[in-house]
Amino acid sequence: MSNIVSVIIPxxxxxxxxxxxxxSVIEQQYRDIEIIVVDxxxxxxxxxSNDLMSDSRIKLxxxxxxxxxxxxxxxxxxxxxxxxxxxxxxxxIWYPQKLSLQMSFLDKLGAKRxxxxxxxxxxxxxxxxxxxRRIPVxxxxxxxxxxxxxxxxxxxxMIHRSLFDKIxxxxxxxxxxxxVDWFIRLVLAGGCLDVVPQIMATISLGQKPRYLTVKCAGDxxxxxxxxxxxxxxxxxxxxxxxxxxxxxxxxASAFKRERCFIKGTYHLAASLLRHPRTHLxxxxxxxxxxx
Length: 291
Description:
The chain is α/β, with parallel strands linked by helices. It has helices at about 15-25, 50-55, 70-80, 100-105, 140-145, 155, 160-165, 180-190, 210-225, 230-255, 260-275; strands at about 5-10, 35-40, 60, 85, 95, 115-125, 130-135, 160, 190-205, 285. Strand 6 and strand 7 (about 130-135) form a beta hairpin.
């Protein structure tokens, strides 16, 4: 197995944006890549343009029905052959230097890199045209990982295949928050997050998911980790962080998707009661990226 980076792009009914996402991978300065596009039951089925279909580095995998992002990502891993795994959501794009910077960073780390998830900075692209640039902080503290995915794993993170094998696949019963669950498992197994402190991806902020979808996923996570460890104080802090974060997710769906002010306000208040603070993020998750 060589230093091939397997880039996995799940897609569901986004034929236009996925074309742009794929081309942002083809234009990477780092050339030792393969691209696994997983059509998660799109209707009609995804059809790539002729030039993409003729590119030997691109493989199109079709799922017989829509199974959700966890199943699509797992299917992409099974169809891949690279030593390194990276994911790109179908409505996001990479800067051309993204993979080359990450590989240069990883080359200096030796064996440590096999237990590391490596992210980059990113910018959120709002529908209003506003761009919100963020450089995530590095961490190996479980309390951070129980407080959400501040590092935008869907489109910035790269990991060694052996790490994915060690932690296990994404939970295919979860339609949302599957990243939160996977990275909690990562840090509990002794893994960590490091960051290349440069903006290397643009993340499109789409419509918030339905409230009940997020609530069901949150309930599943709480059941998984309710008996976290023998360290009761540490466990209590982790669960407070998790519940505070989940209430923020519920509030966002209630406000922005359901347009329900009462429900959203309730969950926002519940989040602040779980982890009192004067700003929305539970921790200072991002470094200054305005320069």
